[in-house]
Queue: 2 jobs
Job 1
Amino acid sequence: MPRTADHAERRSQLIAALVRVAARDGLHAVTMRSVAAEAGVSLRLVQYYFDTKAQLVHAALRHLEAQSNQRWAARLADQPDPVEPRVVVEAFLAEALPTDEPSRVFHTVWTSYAVLAMTDPDLAAQPFVDGPNHLEAQLAQLLRRAQDQGRIPADRNPAIEAARLLMVTHGLGTSILVGRHTPDAAQAVLRYHLDRLFPPA
Amino acid sequence: MPRTADHAERRSQLIAALVRVAARDGLHAVTMRSVAAEAGVSLRLVQYYFDTKAQLVHAALRHLEAQSNQRWAARLADQPDPVEPRVVVEAFLAEALPTDEPSRVFHTVWTSYAVLAMTDPDLAAQPFVDGPNHLEAQLAQLLRRAQDQGRIPADRNPAIEAARLLMVTHGLGTSILVGRHTPDAAQAVLRYHLDRLFPPA
DNA sequence: CTGTATATGATACCCAGGTATCATTATTGG
DNA sequence: CCAATAATGATACCTGGGTATCATATACAG
C-alpha cells in the first residue's frame, strides 16, 4: 500500500533528538516543538509517531532504561571470566561514571527523570529503584565470589559492600555532572575505595 | 508614612510557600500563581515582593543555602569538644540524610535545583559545588584530628576519606528520596562505613 | 485631617506549548 | 495508472503562566 518508513527507526531518531535537547537544555526544554526542530522534522511528525507528549516522554525513558540495561550486560559479558575480580568490578562501575560525552548525556537525562519521578506520580519511579537493585545484586554476587577467592577479607559483608560501592559511585557520578569533580578526580576516589576493599597482596 | 508590613517576613512566607509547592509537586509546578495560592495571597503580592519569577526562584535558592549552612554550623557547634570523634562525624552526616519530613522537603527541593543548574546557565551552579566543598573540608579536618588521636588508622588519607564519606552519604540521600532505601537502611550502610573508618578498639 | 508613599487587589495582555483539524503528498498493489 | 492508505505539512485552537496596567485601600507625617 503506502510507502513505508521504518517506524522503529523514526521513533529512535525522535527519541535521540529528545535526549539531545534534554541533555543540552534540560528536561523542561523538551517540548513537542523543540524535539521536532532538533530532529529536523515538522511538529506534525512528532505527533504522528507519538500521539501525546506523555507517550513521547515515557518512550524515551524506556529507551534509556533498555539502553542502560544492555550496556551493563555488555560490561559483564565483555569480561573474560578468569580475570582479576577487582578489574571486573572496576570496569563494571566505570559505566556508572559520566566520563565521556555520551555517558554524560545519558546520566544527565536519567538524573533529570529521576528527580521528576520524585514528585510526578505519572512517571513510574520503578526504573529508578529496580535498576540499581539489580546492579547491586550483581555487584554483591561479584564480591561474594571475590571473597571466596580470598581477594576480599572474610570480615566484609558483600551485600553491604555492594550497596556502599554503588552509593560512592552514584555520589561521584552526580558530583561530576554538577561540575564539582573532574572524571579523573572521581576515579581516584573510586580507586581508593577499591584499594581498601581489595587489600593489596 | 504607610503601614508597614515586615518585608523580610513576607518574603519568608512566600519562599516557604514555594518550597512547599516544590517539594510536593516538583519545581516545575512552581509558578507565580501556585506560590500565591499556596501562601494564601494574591498573585499581585508575589509580584510586589519579587518583581520577576527568576528573582523569586533565586531568592528561594539563597534561602535554602543559608538555611543549610546554618544547620551545618549548628550541628558542629552543638557538639561538645571532648566527645568521641566518630559521634561528631555521625551527627554531622545525619544532617545530609533526608530522614524526617522537613529534611526530606529540603533535600527534595535542593536536588531539584541542582538538576536544574546542570543545564540552566542562569541558575548559579556555585552553591552546589561550594557547599559540598566546604563540608568536605570540615569533615577532613575532623578526620585529621581523629587520626591524630589514634582513632583512625594512620594509613588512611583524611582528605579522600572525607570525600568518599560525603559521596556515600549523598548517594544514600538521593536513594532515600527516590524510595529505594528506607532511612533506617541508609543509616545501617552509613554505620557500616563508619565502623570500617573507625576500627573498634 | 489629609495627602502621600506604601501595600494589595482585579484584571488584561501575550506568548509558549499541547492538542486538534484539514489538507497534501507520496507509494504501491491491483 | 489509479485508488487507497500511509506519511507529512500548514495552521488553528485553547490553556497556563509571566508580566503589565490600573485601581484601591491603608497608615502615618505634618
Note: Chain B has two domains: 1-51, 63-197.
Job 2
Amino acid sequence: MSNPKTRDDASVDPRLFLQTVARTMRVLEGFGRKQGPQSLAELAAAAEIDKSAAQRICYTLQTLGYLERDAATGGLRPGLKVLDRTFDFLRMHPLIERAVPVLAELRAMTGQRVDLSLLDDLSIIYAQRLQNRRETFVASLVGRRLPTWCSSGGRAMLASLPDAEVDSILHRSDRRRFTPHTVTDLAAIWDKIRAARRDGFAFTEQEWIMGEMVVAAAVTDAAERPVAAIHIAGSLAEWDARGFQLRMGPPVIEAARSISA
Amino acid sequence: MSNPKTRDDASVDPRLFLQTVARTMRVLEGFGRKQGPQSLAELAAAAEIDKSAAQRICYTLQTLGYLERDAATGGLRPGLKVLDRTFDFLRMHPLIERAVPVLAELRAMTGQRVDLSLLDDLSIIYAQRLQNRRETFVASLVGRRLPTWCSSGGRAMLASLPDAEVDSILHRSDRRRFTPHTVTDLAAIWDKIRAARRDGFAFTEQEWIMGEMVVAAAVTDAAERPVAAIHIAGSLAEWDARGFQLRMGPPVIEAARSISA
DNA sequence: CGCGAGCGTATTGCTATGCGATACGACCGC
DNA sequence: GCGGTCGTATCGCATAGCAATACGCTCGCG
C-alpha cells in the first residue's frame, strides 16, 4: 500500500516520527486479519510489540472509546468512536458532499446499485453505497477495498492515468483470479483500459462477483488526475451486457463529469 | 459523551495512560468542529497542544495515511486509512453482519429508508443506512450522531432501559428544539417512552426533519440491554401517521427481535 | 510597495514519559 | 491439580517525546 500521497518509508524523519503513534495505529490495524474480537496478546503480535506496550496502548484506546470489550467473549474490538472519525472523513472530503446528491439522482434514474469509490494506489475503497431494491445480500460495506486492476472503477481510473503509472500499478498488483471470468492477462487488461479511454467508461462482467456487471467512470481533480469513480452495478439476470452499457454508460459519464473539478 | 463503557475520567490510571495516544486522538477529533480542511495551527488549538506537538503528531499521521493534505487548499483532512478502520469496526461488530441482510429484506419489503443505529449514551450513531428510491437529499452519512432523547431509535432504546437510566440520560441531554415539532418537555418524552414500551416500537413525527416520520425498535444483547435500533423512515407526503405505524410497526419489531441476542 | 502576522518547517538540549522486564493471580484444558 | 496462557500490576532506567526557539514563506493590510 505504498500510496504516492503517503510519505515514503525511506524518507521518514525520525526526529518528527512518533513511535507511540505508529504503534497505536498498528494496534488498531490488527483487526484486519481475523474475524471476531481479538485478545490483547493477538493484538500485540499483530502490531509486533510486546505485551506491556500493547497493554498501555489498549488501555488508553479503551479509555478514549476507540476500543471496546466484547460483552460475550471479553475480547477487544474497535470502538464506537471509530465511526465519528468516519463521519469526519466523509464530511471533510472535497468530493463526497458534492457526490452524494448526484449519486442519489443517478440511483433514482437508473434503479441500479450505485457506488462511489476512492483510489488508493493498488486498491479502491468504497466510500458510499446506494443499493437497489432487490439487493438482499450486501456483503460490501463502507471501507471495503477492492483491487484496482480488476474492478470497474479501478480500470476507469487507470484509464485516466499516464501509461507509465498504469504499468506500475498493474505490475505491483497481485493479479489473482476471483471468478472464472476475472481478466488477469496484462495485455487483455490493457485492452480493457484502452476501451475505457475510448468509451469514457469502464465495463466489467463477473470479474469480481458472478452474475454482476458494472460500468464505471472516473472522477478527476483540478489536475486531471483520477481520485474517485462512480459505479453502476447490474445483474446479468435482468440485462444483457450490450444493453446495460448502452443504457448506463452515458449517465455514469455525465455524473462523474459533474462532480469532477 | 461520557459513555458508561468508556472508563471514567476520574479512575484513569496514569501509569497505563499514554499521553501521546490521547493527544493523537484529540488531533483527529479536531475535525469535528469546522467545515473544510484544517491548518496545523487549528488542529493544535483544537487538541489543546502546542505547535511542536501537533507538528510531530500530524507528520506521523500523514506518514501513516491517517491524514492527507488537501490538494486545493494545502490544509489537512482525515486520510483514507480512516475508512479501513471503519471497515474493521463494521466487520468486527457482533450485530452488523447479522443485521445487514435483515435490513435489506426490511427495505425491500417496505420500500422505505431503513437505518441501523447504535446507542452511545446521549447520542445514537448511524452504522448502516439503506435509502429509498426517491431520497435525493441524503444529509446523513455513516457515523452521523443524533440525540438519543429526540430520535425514534433513541426513544426505542430508552424504552428498554430501567427508569433510573432513562432519567439520567434525559437530564444530562441538551434538549433543544430542532423543529417546531420536537418534543422537549420531560413529561411528554416520558409519555412517548411509555408508549414505546406498550407498542414495542417508538414513533416520532417531524421531530428532527420536517416532513419525516420514523418508527424504530430496539435491538437488545444477551443481558436484555439495548445496543442498537432499527429505523424505518417515511414521508408525510405519502403516508398518514396512523397508517404508517400500523404498516411499519410489526415488521420493524420483528426485524429487531430477529437480530437480538 | 513593504511590513508584519501567520503559516509550515527545522533543530536543540533536557527530562518527563513511555519503555520492557518482571511478577502475580485467574482461568482453562490436557 | 498442574502447565499454559490470559489479563493485570509494578518499577527503575534511558530513550522517546517534549517545548522553546529559530528560519523562510506567503498573504493581506496599510
Note: The beta strands of chain A are 67-69, 76-78, 113-120, 123-130, 145-147, 202-205, 212-220, 226-235.
